[in-house]
From TrEMBL:
Signal peptide residue numbers: none
Pfam families: PTE
Name assigned to this protein: TatD family hydrolase
Residues annotated for a divalent metal cation 2 binding in this entry: E133, H165, H193
Single GO MF annotation: zinc ion binding
Keywords, ordered alphabetically: Hydrolase, Metal-binding
Cofactor binding summary note: Binds 2 divalent metal cations per subunit.
InterPro entries: Metal_Hydrolase, Phosphotriesterase
SUPFAM superfamilies (UniProt xref): Metallo-dependent hydrolases
Organism the protein comes from: Amedibacillus dolichus
Length: 303
């Protein structure tokens, strides 16, 4: 079953799924601006409705404990837009961590995650359905390492998936090593932002280890051109890896909304990128795997 902010649903109810998104967050403490501060509002509702018109039915909302998570606002968005939203538990990059992480043990951090997954978040009764986005900087810190370990410990007990943040697509191997050492099933892990690496040998290695990878920064062409993303994805699909890849656009700024006129917001994957894949010869059945059946498998809670 899939845990959403409105309760459990069957995997077959997920439909087209964006596997790494932010519908409500607040990163102003670190970023010192309000571009990454938004939530339940007419603007966000309209942005979600545009994605829904393209067929999106589920958002995996990986705004975690230190990113301004507000699951009550997510529940309002879910109700207003009639979409499924999977909420997350986790801790992000080191600079966002609360002070107590310095002294907390792996077990204590894992217990926080388990509380959110099995009891509810912030006394709301709304449960997280995934651990994420747990992160590593370009050089992994001690606390980031500890949080990744705690994520594996909690995920094994809860039967849920883990979604990670690999800064600029780097350190996927290091994250993979931690999960392997902790005995985490790689098939329940999505290594995030791997598309940014633009390194096919690296991607294939992670996939050969059994991990899922995300092409989840689609549309962020300041980092990598979408044409190259599409070509890389076509290569991986041709190699038989489509069962281990998920797609998303990681909208984390208001300036990425379609309202800006410069970006396509939550419609980026379906509006522009999927047609590009089809033009390159990627088959619809492989697209369905990346948008539907892979998320169904990965986010299914297995106890």
């Amino acid at each position: 079953m899939i845990q959403t902010v409105k309760g459990m649903i069957k995997p077959c109810e997920m439909g087209y799924t964006m596997s790494h998104e932010h519908l409500c967050l607040d990163l102003s403490k670190v970023r010192k601006n309000d571009d990454s501060t938004y939530g339940y509002s007419n603007t966000v509702i309209k942005e979600i409705e545009k994605a829904k018109a393209y067929g999106v039915k589920t958002f995996v909302e990986v705004t975690c404990n230190d990113m301004g998570r507000d699951v009550q606002q997510l529940a309002l968005l879910s109700e207003a837009c009639d979409i499924h939203i999977i909420a997350a538990t986790g801790f992000y990059l080191d600079e966002y961590h609360p002070d107590f992480i310095d002294e907390a043990s792996i077990e204590e951090i894992a217990e926080i995650f388990l509380q959110d997954l099995t009891v509810g978040i912030d006394n709301t009764g709304i449960r997280a359905g995934v651990i994420g986005e747990v992160a590593s900087s370009e050089s992994m810190t001690k606390n980031e390492y500890k949080i990744l370990q705690a994520s594996a410990l909690a995920a094994k007990k809860a039967g849920c998936a883990i979604v990670t943040h690999c800064q600029l697509g780097k350190l996927g191997n290091e994250q993979a090593d931690i999960f392997i050492e902790m005995g985490m099933n790689p098939q329940k892990v999505i290594l995030g932002h791997i598309d940014l690496s633009n390194d096919l040998e690296y991607m294939c290695h992670l996939l050969d280890l059994g991990f899922n990878i995300a092409f989840d920064t689609i549309g962020k062409t300041a980092y990598l051109d979408d044409e190259r993303r599409a070509e890389n994805l076509k290569y991986l699909v041709d190699k038989g890896y489509s069962k281990q890849i998920v797609l998303s656009q990681d909208i984390s700024r208001k300036s990425y909304f379609s309202k800006s006129g410069k970006y396509d917001g939550y419609t980026t994957v379906l509006k522009g990128f999927i047609p590009r894949l089809l033009e390159l010869g990627v088959q619809q059945e492989d697209i369905e795997k990346m948008l539907v059946s892979n998320p169904q498998r990965i986010f299914n809670i297995e106890k």
